[in-house]
Design a protein that fits this description.
Elements lengths: L2 H17 L1 H28 L6 H31 L3 H4 L6 H29 L12 H26 L4 H4 L2 H9 L10 H7 L3 H13 L6 H32 L12
Length: 267
Amino acid sequence: MSPKRTAAIVLRQFYLLRGSPVRILPMLGWVAIDIVLWGFISRYLNTVASAGFNFVPALLGAVLLWDFLVRVMQGVTTALLEDVWSRNFLNIFATPLSISEYVSGLVVTSTATSLVGLSVMLVLATSVFGLSFFAYGLLLVPFLLVLFLFGVALGIFGCALLLRMGPAAEWLIWPIPAVLSPLACVFYPLSALPRWLQYPARLLPPSYVFEAMRNIVSGRAVSGLALMLSAGLALSYILLAGWFLTRVYKYVVRSGLIARYSAESLS
C-alpha cells in the first residue's frame, strides 16, 4: 500500500470540502442540532425527575458519543457514495490505486471531519448545557477510541455493501446505526434488555463503552477488562470488514460488475 496514493485521496477530499461549503454545513449543523435538542430534553428531565440525578451527563453524554461513532461511519460511506453519484468511481480505479489505499484515504478524511464535529459537540455541550466532559480527562480517550474503531468497521462494511449491491444499497447503509442502537445500550443499561438480547449486545463494542460511561457518571468503578474486550472486538470487526471488502472488490472486478455499476447489479 502506497502512502502517497492514500494521501492523494485525502487531498482530493480536502479540495472537495474546501470548494463546497454545502459539504461543510452538514458536518457542523447536524451535530449542533442533535446537541441542542438532547440538551434541552436533558434539562427538562432534570426539572421533573427526583433531585440528585443529573440527566445531562447520562443522556447528553451518550448522545455525544453515539453521534461521534455515526459521523465516523458516515464519513467513510458518504465519501464513496459521492464518487458513485458523480460517476467518478470507475475513473478512480482506472488508476493503479488499490481498494485498500482508497478506503484508507476515506478513513483518514473521516477521522478529520469527525474530530471537527466532536469539537463542535463538546463546545456546545460544555458551554450551553454544562456537560463537564473534560473533567473525566484521559478516561474519555479509550471510550472515543473504541467507538472510532467500530465506526470505521461499520464504514468499511457499508462500502462493501455498496460495491456488491450497487448504489441502491445506500438504503441499507443509512439505517445501520439506528438498527444497532438498541443493542448498543446507548441510553439504558445492558440489564434492561431481555436476556436473549443481551447475548448479541455483548458482541457490540459500544455496549461496553456506554456501560462504563454510566458507571463513571454514577461514581462506580470502570472495568478495565471490559474496555479491553470492547477494543479487541472493535479491532476484530475492522479486520473482518476489511476481509469482506477485499473479497467483494475482487468479485466485482472478476465478474465485471464494477464496469456496469448500477442499482440493478445484484447478480
